[in-house]
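Section handout 9: paired folding examples.
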Amino acid sequence: MSTSPAAPASPTERELNEFRSRFPILARRNYLNSCSLGALSHDAEARLDDFRELWHTMGASAWYEHWLGRLDELRAKAGAIHGAATEETAILPSTSAALSVVADAVPTAGRNRVVCSELDFPTLAYQWRVKPEIELVVVPSDDGIGVSLDRFEEAVDERTLFVATSHVCYSTGYVQDVAGIGEIARRAGAWSIIDGYQAAGQIAVDVEALGVDVYTSGPLKWLCGGPGLAWLFVRADRIAEMKPRFTSWFAARDQFDFRLDAFEFRDDARRFELGTPALPTVHTALGGIEALESFGLDRVQARIRALTARLVEGCREAGFSLRTHPDPERRSGIVMIAHDDPAEAVRRLDARDIVVDHRPGHVRVSPHAYNTEAEVDEVVAALAGMYT
């Protein structure tokens, strides 16, 4: 008889304080905006210092002795976090770049329909909105929080080339049934593309178990690695089918041959890479991952769930209207609190050293594992005080 894995042990006060001490902003401010930008850690700074020192002392020769190895290290780390093999992992400048490469690399087989949802970040839809040959179908949300599988099922047919949607909806925190979406696409002969930028680090991601064809992610948010990079994961048995028309010397089988008379793609996912990556972010991304690994990724995710539940309960007790799903299994660490003037609320909270964000009609709060229960309670009390 199978059993569910045991929940990770809660951190002791000492363990939590040690983890928090890695993130200097927490000594100055109540930082609850990790879904926009994860906090910078000493670990990331140390990696960046190493990069800077090698640049000072070795210059370009550091590429061969160190920096190419850092790229390999990051591909392996990112792949492991997402349940993908290193050979299925590519480093790109952004999710927009990753989607552009994929959109132009897949054989259309006479299909021209792309299915997104109205709750997706605009980047997903923009890739195809600008292509007049593509019929873009935007699936509606019935409740403004999530999109049912039935809606995807209705929209996907034999004309569909891609089902492209989010793992976690940026404006509601809703966790989609990605495995179910992938199955709908597969039955119709379509490709599934999942934007997981808001997922990685805060919920468990296993792209192999999810059964999707393409998954994008990156270090900017919950993985605390900073801006300037994205990861593209492509299922191993799909790679050979894809022939990118946006390419670079990093995608070449013999990268350092520098031939102009011929071009052959790499056999692995690096065929999708677009030139020299942002090495500073390569280093901070590695440091961000190390900071989270010091605490334990499973404990990071468990603590985000617990703090989110506390935040939701506190908001409801305060009488706030929330745009969040009632099922905790469909919630992530993004909590949308209705407000008549969210921009002003965020400004006033900032003046009190509480850092959150806003989206239309809502204050957006996103605790991370490095936050405390007291910090979650403080933002609720501060918002409540604005109404009295």
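Moving on to protein 2 of 2.
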Amino acid sequence: MSPDQILAELAARRQGDLPTHGGRTLAYVYDSGLEEADEVARQAIAMYAATNGLDPTAFPSLLSMESDLVGFARSALHGGDEVVGTVTSGGTESILLAVQTARDAAGVERPAMVVPTTIHAAFAKAAHYFGVELVTVPVGPGHRADVAAMTETIDRLGDRVVLVAASTPSYAHGVIDPVEDLAAVTRERGLRFHVDACIGGWILPWTPDAPAWDFAVPGVTSISVDLHKYAYTPKGVSLLLHADAALRRPQFFAHADWPGYTMLNSTTQSTKSGGPLAAAWAVVQLIGDEGYRDLVRRTLDGTRRLAEGIEAIDHLHLVERPDTSLVVVGTDDAVDPFTISDLMLDRGWFVQPQMRFGDEPANLHLTISAATAASVPEFLEALRESVAAAAAAGPIRIDPLLAEAAAGLDPDTLDDEAFDGLLALAGLAGEGGQVAVPERLGPVNALVDVAPPRVREALMIAFLDRLTR
């Protein structure tokens, strides 16, 4: 293929993707609305695409840019000169490294970490990878971490606890956990305390009257902050910050007992492109402190106006008052969030449905970025139309017998043939046994919603397995 043919083909393949700019995709992507930021990021990626972050002595420019980003974040997050940091590929890797570092530093048998039930699923992934028991504690009022219950759990587990974590804010509800109170507990017991600020870490520093949550709080030992969220850099850049170098040291991996070069890594990855790091550095330098202050002001103003507008729409309510830029919308029995999600996509807006959890029903999750703020009136109009259409159609009903059967499934006993049957039942199987993504996901989501979490997990794994064969 010629270069022109290749670019034309890439453009054609992108036609079916969600838009990454314009503020209409309220999950997965973050848009500053600044064309010059996008352009300088593209040029930086191109300039550094062939560089390799494996060896900082080979590409010292990457080391200098990493130091600059850590320095910017250290200042924004009230850290002193002793705070150290590492650029990672995303929030999940930052969290993985925080858990691995805590486990290796403690060196105890049957390590455990204590977290609220609202903690991000990346902690469950870290627990699975690193053999750390994930002990979740039900949250208290307002879906915030219950300090008393977490303290009781910490004391019950004793020396097994290697890490305690909290969210600022939690993804599922958009609220900030009581960091100061939890930090007092962990500090008294000499425990590591990680603050997952992957979403809020580049908003809260410029938020008026934000609660104390960062290194200004004694006892906070590490923080994860994603630059590819509200720093508006291209995907693939997060920061893991430690309160001092001694806390970070177990994060590093070295291996010399083989005939090749001595492997030395600060992250899970070895080889890693310098492109995303260079792009992040370029965007942060371009926007700067005052630029982020303005972007946060616009984002929070848009979030406030959106929340107020949602409260005025029949059949909808706020699950919680948003602390930053995440809005979670509940529905009454006359409509269901899965139908609304489909109808919003018809109108050019992507909103993310969240499945039921315990006694909490399914809801809609909205991530607001600076580019979305100007379109809040247009979004609210589309939402009013979608809710009215959903109410006219009525909520999706799942056969009670089918729901009962799903609840009784044991994923460990199911073979491939059984999973193929489940995928067909869920509307995810196409012709010839191939899986297919249906045009309307509402009925699929409604069916998956009635299944217990372990069955959901198994069904989604089966779907991804077949989708990528």
